[in-house]
Amino acid sequence: MPFEIGIMTFGELTDDQATGAPPSPRRRVRETIEQAQVADQAGLDVFGVGEHHRTDFVGSAPAILLAAAAEKTKKIRLTSSVTVLGSEDPVRVWEQFATIDLLSAGRAEIIAGRGSYTESFPLFGYDLKDYAELFREKLDLLLKIRGQNPLTWQGRFRAPLVEADIAPRADGGTIPIWVGVGGSPASAVSTGRLGLPMALALLLGPMTLHQETVELYRSAAAEAGHDAGALPISINAHGFVARTSQGARDTMYPYFAKGMMDNNHQRGRGFRMPRAAFDAQSSPRAGLLVGSPQEIIDKLLGYHELYGLDRAIIQMGFGGVPQKDHLEAIELLATDVAPVVRREVALRQRSVA
Amino acid sequence: MTIVAQDHGTGPITRIPASRLRVVVVNGSPSRPSKTMGLVDVVLDNLKDMLPIEVSRVDVYRLGAGFTGAIEREDVTPEVEEAIRLAEDADLLIAAAPVFRGSYPGMFKHFFDLVEQYALANKPVLLAATGGGDHHALVLEHAMRPLFAFFQALTIPVAFFASAGDFDGTTLLNPRVHGRIEVGLTDVADLLRARATGARSSTGPDIGE
């Protein structure tokens, strides 16, 4: 597949650093759709919305935000990033994303994940004890729904389906389903065995962090008889692009640190990420996709070399980056980064073939 | 005495049927099913491909008040006495536990507190542990191995650890852990064959609960 570059958001409601007040949820949903619109117009390939069930996010129902985005966009692919499938009804997930697919003329996608946040399990009456089993069963059902209609199916966690007619069907017959993998060896192996595309979540750490994950994924896929080399891999990573290296870092840092403080806990409390640690994570061999367009190009090509990467979805507004800065970064990513990376990767693929 | 026996996987061959290795698993996990037993299942699967075995298991968390209330060996109920005896008489003891608060669970230690001081001397003991992350892996070397050093047991050199991320539910998926288990067991296959004292196996390997 040609290399794809996209953006994603959690639609988080982070307190404004000047006023201490969060933006209104109404404003935030509009901003979210505007991000999709700008990304589409500027020529990015993918727009993703994450699922979080808390009052400091507006993204508890990504399908609805994506449906709204479908109306405002023309070409960009619309994906969940991720759908917490273990606490969902796969029938409903399919119905929603097939509807988005119709609204958008075939642009809907699903990244099915176990979910790093677990709020949705008690909300929908699921026991976290069944975390792994729930995901396995629901992914199986979702894939079967995609594969055939009507469907007869039976599992542990919901009533059986007997010749069930599940509609609508997708616009183009099918919807891509990726599996979100945080990097645990078992997730990589089970995703590889199923021969499904893998969306790797990359937060912090060295660029090589997921090399083993990718190796396990590809070898499990090959062992199960899939064409391992052809399976697409995507990274979902944090980043920010600006005209200059320093400008990108200076803009991103305070918001990223705030986002980490609010969402990444130790001893049940957020912790302040020191600027030095942030700068280390931004260095050439570290995972954060922050910097000038050239830095981002180099890093994405580095990732492509390491993982055989096919797609990168960058989260650039984390921690409440002001909409104006966020939109500028989206445009820059689309105009100054994406075309070069697509071209370079295509050249590499041609020289291999 | 030569008897024609069906050996597993290798077709009919003429051989003296081997004694089964009497394996006893002491399970220190309260969960059912558990990752700890998921790890042990892989060990047992590998083991039974190498030699005939018979397996019993003691779940320390299911031994009840006759166990938890016992301070000395003489305090235990007959069923608990039987469970402890089983462990003391094993050809191979598999000591398996999850990491609780930085070490093996207290209930697991309580079981071994009731085991006779020299009952495990020179007995092959295989160590297995599971933890939330790789940073717990040294529980094998810093907590479990010293416990069996006290008993003067013959702990098997390679011990087995798996992290939560190596499992899908309770199924061990990480091929590296599988590989380590194979290596660790191959090291001691001859020793274990020599130590087998169970009933002779006429139909190849057997596995019981």
From TrEMBL, chain A:
Keywords: Monooxygenase, Oxidoreductase. Signal peptide: none annotated. SUPFAM superfamilies: Bacterial luciferase-like (SSF51679). It holds the Pfam family Bac_luciferase. Residues 5-307 form the Luciferase-like domain. InterPro entries: Bact_Lucif_Oxidored (IPR050766), Luciferase-like_dom (IPR011251), Luciferase-like_sf (IPR036661). PANTHER family: BLR5498 PROTEIN (PTHR30137:SF8), LUCIFERASE-LIKE MONOOXYGENASE (PTHR30137). This is LLM class flavin-dependent oxidoreductase. It comes from Actinomadura violacea.
Automatic annotation (TrEMBL), chain B:
It holds the Pfam family FMN_red. Residues 22-164 form the NADPH-dependent FMN reductase-like domain. Keywords: Flavoprotein, FMN, Oxidoreductase. Coiled coil: none annotated. Gene3D superfamilies: 3.40.50.360. It comes from the Bacteria. This is NAD(P)H-dependent oxidoreductase. It comes from Actinomadura violacea.
